[in-house]
């Protein structure tokens, strides 16, 4: 789905995050798709804003995503 319609995928990721549904995965996957769409700044803000909703074990992965987004 992401390859076919990244904008629709981002909307679904936002819905999952706001619903508290698999926030770790949704936030990470959304950030990757946003980067592919040249929306890195938006992805950085999303990760910063919603990382507190993610589990402790997801924090290192989110750090790595942020590092990649800043490149």
General description of the model:
- The protein has 71 residues and is mainly α.
- The chain has one domain (6-70).
- The chain has helices spanning 6-19, 23-36, 40-50, 59-70.
Topology diagram in text:
Elements: H1 6-19, H2 23-36, H3 40-50, H4 59-70
* Oligomeric composition of the shown chains: single chain
Largest sheet: none
Strand content: under 5%
pLDDT below 50 for ≥5 consecutive residues: which ranges?
A: none
Total tally of structural domains: 1
Averaged pLDDT, please? 94
**Pattern of helices and strands:** HHHH
Q: Gist?
A:
This protein is mostly helical and 71 residues long. The protein is built from four helices and no strands.
Task: List the main descriptive attributes of the protein structure presented here.
single chain, 71 residues, mainly alpha, 4 helices, 0% strand, Pentacotripeptide-repeat region of PRORP domain-containing protein, coiled coil
């Amino acid at each position: 789905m992401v390859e076919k319609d990244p904008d629709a995928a981002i909307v679904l990721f936002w819905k999952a995050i706001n619903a508290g549904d698999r926030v770790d995965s949704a936030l990470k996957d959304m950030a990757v798709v946003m980067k592919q769409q040249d929306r890195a700044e938006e992805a950085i803000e999303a990760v910063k804003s919603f990382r507190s909703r993610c589990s402790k074990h997801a924090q290192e992965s989110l750090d790595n995503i942020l590092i990649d987004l800043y490149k």
